[in-house]
Design brief:
Elements lengths: L16 H4 L9 E7 L5 H10 L26 E5 L5 H10 L2 E7 L3 H16 L1 H14 L14 E6 L23 H14 L3 E6 L8 H13 L14 H14 L9 H11 L6 H14 L4 E2 L2 E2 L1 H13 L3 H10 L10 H4 L9 E5 L1 H14 L6 E2 L1 H7 L17 E2 L8 E2 H14 L1 H10 L6 H4 E5 L13 E7 L4 H9 L9 H7 L4 H7 L4 E8 L9 E8 L5 H9 L8 E7 L3 H16 L6 E7 L6 H14 L5 E4 L3 H17 L9 H46 L1
Parallel strand pairs: 1-2, 1-3, 3-4, 4-5, 10-14, 13-15, 13-16, 16-17, 17-18
Antiparallel strand pairs: 6-7, 8-12, 9-11, 14-15
Helix pairs in contact: 3-5, 4-5, 4-6, 11-12, 16-17, 19-21, 23-24
């Protein structure tokens, strides 16, 4: 291991170094809280660090102190929060605001050391207590800075008055039994169990403000614990944490330029130059790979440095107390302290509104399809849950974990529960439109490097077009109607793949069968799939159709949202009623009338669901008359027992209505009369304007002629 090339401190790349620590700024400085017993030396330590002068008579406490930037090697502002034990409110607020906490004890007092757990760690500084203090602080100051980027602030134990070790008297602890000096062995005896019990305890240092011993080192280590912390990288067993492994795997993937699963010498040096600014010599590369192979045989293969070897090198950095070199690599590739990508790294300037949709471009879809095919080793056209987890092995977690479960978003799966290619791409399109920044972040996690401009495009929705059609390949349809099975069956058929032969029986028992998916449709549910719609002028031959089930109790609110000019993201409204039920049709009729009377420009389509009860002739007669009065096409009949076979035509009709739906906008008789009057008035104004223009031009020509004629006669 001694042959491992460790970069020197000066070898870290300084290019855009401020961007590497963009989490901190003048508005959000690194805050260091100083806590400990009364008289332990808190104020003296802060004053000595800030001014390089030990105060002979320090004040009870200091205001927020900003040390000179030359005191520490990081390009971030720092604030030091001094505290007093008799001011509990300031003490707890400082702990809640701090990014790192220095817990001080007196090197000349064994009692000071023994009180660390009982009076400080348990009531104030344990991770659980810190979270409670932050929550309380957030209630008092909602917009205040109450938390750092870690789960809780790291704690650094600091022994003060090192110069007084072995002495008694002035500067020692309060009680006589506590005035016994403590040796280094005693410190290790007390501190080791503390560090095992409290995961946020970083390390223990000792210093003397009076003798100017290791004062700077204490604060540099504290700042380092925030900017280059060890806790997110390794666990209590000194092994890399899963999230760190995922981040390093992504860095490895991006450096593996030829995609062969290993870093050859040239790729290693590309990494070295980009992160540390210095390449390795040929002999250093040989020594590096030999050390890795001796330690982890699978870390090197005939092609070069394997992922296991790459992880080993960074584990060695951390174990040798040099985490700044691992963090230099992680921050260079966009990571912040919680091992997610920086917001500035994932930012997208476009966003979804009621007037536009965000879609993945064809190139990005093809790139995602290639990722799908790489994992689909059996060429089955599907991915298992294990394979999708492998896809996201370079992300903090799966893109869809705990966010889009099957009760919220349903896409196409095979009968055995594996996601199909269409279902896979549909989920990505849905995410792009609903949270484009998150979609961009996950593209970056997966290794997409062409930039968000080449991945996403903003397309205007149908309603925002000046003319009748839209080129958006994303259509969102709100599905209204009384609660019941008909709507759910219509939605579920969208994601039911074609069944063949013996699979039909399996589908009935499968947890991913249509019946099982219908049972999950409670409340607001999205069902989505990609529909083939050629010759509609789209950039792609497929449109992502999203059906949104609106619960009956929320339909009035949704109709009001659609009616407003700002509107909600609805491209077409579908109304489903049971063809045998007069009350079901009446409910839908009233909903359509509300939408029509609001002058909304949303196209509508009616579906009459026919089940075993058949169709009520009186309902059909009422519906035909209603459609004629309101200017809609007759309802589309859907056979609930044979819906899977005819679903393609039904969903294509929804998309076509949305994209070219000016003829499907319902209008009341009053609205049509008003429109005719507006058209007549417009024609009058146009033709009247033309007439006035002609008269004016004739008068001008006559006057010009009268002026010119006398001149010609005189000549």
């Amino acid at each position: 291991m001694q042959g491992t090339p460790l970069p020197a401190a000066g070898e870290l790349v300084s290019d855009s170094v401020e961007n590497l620590y963009s989490e901190f700024s003048s508005k959000n400085p690194v805050k260091v809280a100083i806590v400990g017993d009364h008289g332990v030396g808190k104020t003296s330590l802060v004053a000595t660090y800030a001014s390089s002068v030990f105060p002979s008579r320090p004040p009870p406490t200091l205001p927020t102190t900003s040390p000179p930037k030359e005191r520490y090697p990081y390009p971030v502002p720092v604030q030091i929060l001094d505290t007093r034990l008799d001011d509990i409110e300031k003490l707890t607020d400082s702990i809640a605001e701090a990014h790192v906490i220095l817990l001080l004890y007196d090197c000349s007092s064994s009692g000071s050391l023994r009180r660390l757990k009982r009076e400080w760690m348990q009531p104030y500084l344990a991770p659980k207590q810190q979270k409670l203090l932050r929550a309380s602080r957030l209630q008092k100051v909602p917009n205040g800075n109450t938390a750092n980027t870690l789960e809780c602030a790291p704690v650094v134990l600091v022994g003060c008055k090192l110069d007084a070790r072995g002495k008694t008297g002035k500067g020692a602890a309060r009680a006589s039994e506590n005035m016994v000096s403590i040796s280094q062995h005693d410190v290790e005896k007390y501190v080791r169990p503390l560090m095992e019990e409290f995961a946020n305890l970083e390390t223990c240092l000792e210093c003397s403000a009076k003798a100017h011993v290791q004062v700077n080192d204490v604060f540099i280590h504290a700042i380092k614990a925030v900017l280059d912390p060890i806790t997110p990288l390794v666990d209590s067993n000194n092994s890399l944490r899963p999230r760190c492994i995922r981040a390093l795997q992504r860095v490895f993937m991006l450096c593996d330029l030829n995609g062969d699963g290993a870093l050859d010498d040239s790729e290693i040096n590309v990494f070295q130059l980009r992160v540390y600014g210095v390449p390795l010599s040929e002999q250093e590369l040989i020594n590096l790979k030999k050390m890795v192979k001796d330690t982890v045989p699978e870390g090197v293969n005939e092609k070069g440095l394997a992922p296991a070897g790459f992880r080993l090198l960074h584990l060695l950095f951390v174990r040798r107390q040099r985490p700044e070199f691992t963090w230099a690599a992680l921050r260079t590739f966009g990571y912040k302290t919680d091992l997610t990508l920086r917001e500035t790294y994932t930012a997208v300037s476009m966003k979804n509104t009621a007037k536009n949709v965000i879609e993945l471009k064809l190139g990005a879809l093809e790139w995602l399809e290639s990722k799908f095919n790489q994992l689909d080793t059996k060429k089955a056209g599907t991915l298992s849950s294990l394979q999708t987890d492998m896809l996201f092995c370079t992300a903090p977690q799966s893109m869809w974990k705990k966010v889009y479960d099957d009760s919220f978003l349903q896409v196409e799966h095979s009968v055995n529960g594996e996601i199909t290619l269409e279902g896979f791409l549909t989920k990505w399109q849905f995410e792009a439109n609903h949270d484009v920044q998150r979609a961009n972040a996950y593209l970056l996690y997966l290794g997409y490097t062409d930039g968000y401009e080449s991945a996403f495009k903003a397309s205007k929705r149908r309603r925002s077009q000046a003319r009748r059609s839209s080129r958006a390949g994303y259509c969102e349809c709100f599905v209204f109607g009384p609660d019941g099975g008909s709507r759910k069956i219509l939605l579920s058929a969208l994601t039911t793949p074609p069944q063949t032969g013996g699979e039909q029986g399996a589908a009935t028992a499968s947890p991913f069968s249509r019946q099982a998916r219908i049972q999950k449709m409670e409340g607001q549910t999205y069902v989505a799939n990609r529909i083939a719609v050629p010759k509609l002028g789209l950039i792609q031959d497929k449109c992502t159709l999203v059906l949104k089930q609106i619960p009956q109790e929320e339909q009035a609110t949704s109709l009001e949202d659609i009616s407003r000019s700002s509107g909600c993201p609805c491209d077409v409204a579908a109304f489903v009623y049971d063809a045998h039920s007069p009350s079901s049709f009446k409910f839908c009729m009233e909903q359509v009338q509300k939408l029509a009377s609001s002058s909304s420009k949303v196209p509508c389509i009616l579906f009459a669901a026919i089940g075993r009860a058949g169709m009520d002739p009186s309902v059909n007669k009422q519906c035909m008359a209603f459609c004629s009065d309101i200017g809609l096409a007759p309802p589309t009949l859907i056979n609930l027992d044979e819906l899977t076979d005819s679903s393609a035509k039904i969903y294509k009709k929804i998309v076509t209505t949305a994209l070219n739906g000016s003829a499907a906008i319902p209008e009341t008789e009053e609205q049509r009369l008003r429109k005719q009057q507006e058209a007549i008035l417009k024609n009058v104004l146009v033709y009247g304007g033309i007439a006035v223009g002609v008269v004016g031009l004739s008068l001008y020509a006559y006057k010009w002629y009268k002026r010119v004629t006398p001149k010609e006669a005189s000549e």
